[in-house]
Specification:
It is a single chain. The chain is α+β, with helices and mostly antiparallel strands. Helix content is 45%, strand content 21%. It has 17 helices and 15 strands. It has helices at 8-30, 36-51, 88-91, 93-100, 118-127, 162-205, 211-226, 263-266, 268-275, 293-301, 336-358, 366-375, 394-400, 410-416, 419-435, 480-501, 512-515, and strands spanning 55-62, 67-75, 105-107, 131-139, 142-151, 230-236, 243-249, 280-282, 306-312, 321-327, 378-384, 390-392, 439-446, 452-463, 469-478. A five-stranded antiparallel sheet has the order 2-1-5-4-3. The protein has a five-stranded antiparallel sheet with strand order 7-6-10-9-8, with helices on both faces. α1 (8-30) packs parallel to α6 (162-205). Mean pLDDT is 82; it is low at 1-6 and 360-369.
C-alpha cells in the first residue's frame, strides 16, 4: 500500500516531501528547453516513488467541449496510459466537471464516487484503478491543468495533509510549463516572422511561371516549421465549374490521391463552406456535422484526423480556391494564434495566384501586394536615396499615425522613432545601404497620441542604372504583442521565484561534478 502514515509519521513524510520539492524546483528552474519535458517526468517519477503509487501524471484541461488529456506521466508496471489524443473528459465527465470548478477529486475506493459519477466509476474500474486523487491547478485565474495520483494494486484514503503538498508540486511543474510555453511561443513567433518575411520576399520577386514552385516550397517550409502533416491547395478549374487539388505537401504518404481530386465529389460540405468564405476548423472527425458524412468518409480514407481550411480570397467575390492544413499522426486543437498565422499564409498564396492569373508585372500588382501587406499588418514603403522622399502604403501611414495626404520624407519617420533608438536605427539603415544586406531593425516609436509601440523594419536597397544608391524597399510590422510576451516571460520567471521565496524552507542546489560529489 502507499506509504502515507498517520500522526507524526505524516508530519515527517510531509517534511521529506517538501525537501524533495525544493530539489525539484531547482532542477526545473535550471532545465534547458530541450530537457524540460524530461525533468517534468523525472519529477513525477520521484513523487510516484516517494508516495509508492502506480501512476502520477499531469493533465491539460480545456473548457472547450471540454477536453482533457495527459501531457506527462509516470506509470508503474502493467498500468495502461491513455493515448495523448484521447479525450479523458468523455471517460470521466464528473471528475472533469469537478476539476473545472476548482474542486479536488479524492477517492479512496471506487465506492466513494457519488451516484452521478457512475461513468467515472466504470471507466476507472475498466482501467484497474482503485484509489484516485486529482488536484486542479490554476493558470492566470482559470483551471488549465491538474495533477493526478492513482493506485491500482491497493486502496488508500488520501490524507488531507498531502493535498497542499501535491498542489505545490503541481503548481511548480505547471508554472514551469507556462514558462516554457511562453519561451516556445516567443521563439515560434520569431521563427514565423522570419519565415513569413522570407516567403513574402520570394513571392514579391517571383516571375509568374515560378509561382507554382514557390507555393510548393512554402507549403513544405510552413508545414515542417509548424508541425503540420499535410498541406493542400485547391483551385477552380478554367471553366469555374470544378475545384481541384493543384498543390499539396504530404511527407507521411497515404492512399493515392485521385487525379483530378474534385472537391464537389469528395468534400461537398467543405466546398459549400469555403465558397461562402468561411474558415473550416475541425479538431477531429467527430466534429463533422451530420450533413458532412461524405466529407468525414473522405477524411478518414486519406488518414486526416484534424483539418483547418481557409478560403483563398483577394477581396470581394467568391474565393479563388482554398488552402487546407491537416494532421494525420494525431488529433489537434487549432489555437487562435496558429489560425492567425496560417491565415496570413493563405492570403499570401491567394495574392500570388491572383497576380499570376492577371500576368502583370510587379509594380502593376501594387493593389494585390497591398492586400498581402494588410493581411500581415505590414506597412510597405519605398525610400528614394537621392531625395529622401518616401512612398508609404496606407497601412504604413496608419502604423505611424501619419495623415493620408501628408508628404513624407525620410527624416519624418526618424522623428517618430524613440530618441534612445534613433541613432542606432540610422546606423543600421546606412549599413544596409553600404553592404547591400537586408535591413532588420527593431525599435520603439512614440506616436502622436502619446502611446509607445515596438516596430520591426525589414528592407533592402537597390542600385540605380548608374550604379549608385537608388532606393530602399521594405515593410514595417507592429511587434508590440511579441515584446509583451517577452515581458510576460520575465514576469513568469519572477512569479516562480516568488512562489518559493515565500516559503520558510531553504531552497538550494549543488553542482555535483563541480564539488566532486
Amino acid at each position: 500500500s502507499a506509504v502515507m502514515g498517520t500522526g507524526d509519521n505524516v508530519l515527517k513524510e510531509c517534511l521529506r516531501f517538501e525537501e524533495m520539492l525544493s530539489e525539484i524546483f531547482a532542477r526545473v528552474m535550471a532545465a534547458p528547453l530541450d530537457r524540460f519535458d524530461h525533468e517534468i517526468e523525472a519529477a513525477l517519477g520521484r513523487a510516484a516513488g516517494f508516495l509508492r503509487i502506480d501512476q502520477c501524471c499531469l493533465l491539460e484541461i480545456s473548457e472547450e467541449k471540454p477536453f482533457v488529456r495527459i501531457t506527462h506521466a509516470v506509470n508503474g508496471e502493467g498500468v495502461r496510459q491513455p493515448a495523448s489524443d484521447e479525450n479523458l473528459a468523455e471517460l470521466f465527465p464528473w471528475s472533469c466537471k469537478m476539476l473545472l470548478q476548482g474542486e479536488s477529486v479524492n477517492i479512496g475506493t471506487l465506492d466513494d464516487f457519488p451516484e452521478e459519477a457512475s461513468m467515472d466509476r466504470r471507466s476507472h474500474a475498466a482501467a484497474g484503478n482503485t484509489s484516485i486523487l486529482q488536484i486542479p491547478l490554476s493558470v492566470n485565474g482559470r483551471v488549465a491543468r491538474a495533477i493526478t495520483v492513482i493506485l491500482t494494486r491497493s486502496q488508500h484514503v488520501w490524507p488531507e495533509a498531502y493535498i497542499p503538498r501535491l498542489r505545490l508540486l503541481g503548481e511548480t511543474l505547471s508554472n514551469g510549463l507556462e514558462r516554457m510555453k511562453d519561451r516556445e511561443q516567443l521563439e515560434s513567433q520569431l521563427r514565423f516572422e522570419s519565415l513569413l518575411a522570407e516567403i513574402s520576399g520570394r513571392f514579391v520577386n517571383v516571375p509568374a511561371e515560378r509561382v507554382d514552385d514557390e507555393i510548393e516550397y512554402a507549403q513544405k517550409r510552413i508545414s515542417d516549421g509548424l508541425g503540420v502533416d499535410l498541406s493542400v491547395l485547391w483551385q477552380w478549374s478554367d471553366n469555374q465549374r470544378e475545384i481541384r487539388v493543384t498543390h499539396y505537401y504530404r511527407p507521411l504518404g497515404g492512399p493515392p490521391v485521385p487525379s483530378p481530386l474534385n472537391a464537389s465529389e469528395y468534400y461537398p460540405w467543405c466546398l459549400a463552406q469555403f465558397k461562402a468564405g468561411k474558415i473550416i476548423n475541425l479538431s477531429s472527425p467527430e466534429d463533422y456535422p451530420p450533413e458532412a458524412d461524405r466529407d468525414k468518409e473522405s477524411a478518414l480514407y486519406f488518414g486526416v484526423k484534424s483539418t483547418l481550411t481557409f478560403p483563398l480570397s483577394t477581396g470581394g467575390g467568391m474565393p479563388i480556391g482554398a488552402l487546407a492544413f491537416s494532421m494525420m499522426r494525431e488529433k489537434r486543437i487549432w489555437p487562435e494564434a496558429l489560425i492567425d498565422r496560417l491565415k496570413l499564409v493563405a492570403q499570401i498564396f491567394a495574392n500570388a495566384l491572383a497576380r499570376r492569373q492577371a500576368e502583370t508585372a510587379l509594380w502593376e500588382s501594387e493593389a494585390r501586394l497591398r492586400l498581402t501587406a494588410e493581411a500581415v499588418d505590414a506597412g510597405l514603403w519605398v525610400v528614394d536615396a537621392g531625395t529622401g522622399d518616401v512612398w508609404a502604403s496606407q497601412k504604413a501611414r496608419e502604423l505611424f499615425q501619419f495623415s493620408r495626404d501628408e508628404g513624407l520624407h525620410f527624416e519624418r519617420f526618424f522623428e517618430a522613432i524613440h530618441p534612445d533608438d534613433r541613432e542606432r536605427v540610422r546606423r543600421e539603415v546606412d549599413q544596409a545601404y553600404l553592404s547591400g544586406e537586408i535591413l532588420h531593425s527593431d525599435y520603439r516609436v512614440v506616436l502622436p497620441d502619446g502611446n509607445m509601440k515596438w516596430f520591426t523594419a525589414r528592407g533592402q536597397g537597390s542600385l540605380s542604372p548608374k550604379g549608385d544608391f537608388g532606393r530602399m524597399l521594405g515593410m514595417t510590422l507592429d511587434i508590440t504583442r511579441r515584446k509583451e510576451v517577452e515581458i510576460k516571460l520575465a514576469q513568469s520567471q519572477a512569479q516562480l521565484s516568488s512562489l518559493f521565496d515565500s516559503t520558510k524552507d531553504l531552497i538550494w542546489s549543488v553542482d555535483k561534478e563541480r564539488f566532486g560529489l
